[in-house]
Amino acid sequence: MNADDSYLNERIAERRRQLRSGVAGVGLLLALGWGLLLSYPTPSRLVPEPNVSTTTASQSDLLNGSATTALR
């Protein structure tokens, strides 16, 4: 009976070690992910301000020029 208890205690201890190892691995992956996410530079302005001096006609000219440049 004593040998059975020792075996079960060893199995429980091994399972706890595996669980701790898994939790540590997940924590490490989360920390690396957050570090990578936070290391990216952020834009200076999140929402661009509208340019009030630009008219619809000049916008379409700008768009046509950029579309031509993009297609080349």
Task: Describe it.
The structure is a single chain. The protein is 75% helix and 0% strand. The chain has two helices and no strands. It has helices spanning 2-39, 56-71. It is rod-shaped and about 85 Å long. The mean pLDDT is 79.
Please write out the topology:
Elements: H1 2-39, H2 56-71
What is the gist of this entry?
The chain is mainly alpha-helical. Helices cover 75% and strands 0% of the residues.
Keywords:
about 70 residues, mainly alpha, 2 helices, rod-shaped
Shape: rod-shaped
Low-confidence parts, pLDDT < 50 over ≥5 residues? none
Major sheet: none
Give the CA-CA distance, first to last residue.
83 Å
- The residue-averaged pLDDT reads 79
Counting DSSP E segments of at least 2 residues, the number of strands comes to: 0
Q: Helical element count?
A: 2
Radius of gyration in whole Å, from Cα? Answer: 30 Å
Strand content: under 5%
> Helix/strand-derived class?
mainly alpha
